[in-house]
Design brief:
115 residues, 3-stranded mixed β-sheet, 24% strand
């Protein structure tokens, strides 16, 4: 793996066992609580949204491949950190946000129809 950009990013829950190996690493984004409030000074409205980002990795199950899920997870974290430092991003959270945005811009390939 040479780039940490996720290939499958969605807000819709999915069955991890049913997505293709080419769709990993996969990212599921869910929102939790949302707080909206009016600022008394200046009439500004602001909000805070709690977001949970789950990353899914999959070990390569092909014969002769020995990479475990733990190794894939660690590799994904290392790639995120490398991306962060190479681009001088101040926090891991910001690096993940940028990578998720990049993943959301990728158009998913159309599923092949079975005959």
């Amino acid at each position: 793996m040479d780039h940490p950009k996720p290939t499958f990013v969605t807000r819709e829950p999915f069955d991890v066992l049913k997505i293709a190996i080419t769709q990993f690493p996969a990212i599921l984004i869910t929102t939790g609580n949302e707080i909206r409030e009016d600022d008394a000074m200046g009439g500004i409205r602001r909000g805070i949204i709690q977001v949970q980002i789950r990353g899914y990795v999959r070990a390569d199950g092909r014969e002769g491949q020995t990479i475990s899920v733990d190794q894939k997870r660690n590799e994904l974290i290392e790639r995120i950190e490398d991306f962060r430092y190479e681009n001088r991003i101040p926090s891991r959270s910001e690096a993940i946000r940028i990578l998720v945005e990049a993943g959301l811009k990728v158009k998913p390939k159309a599923a092949k129809k079975k005959k």
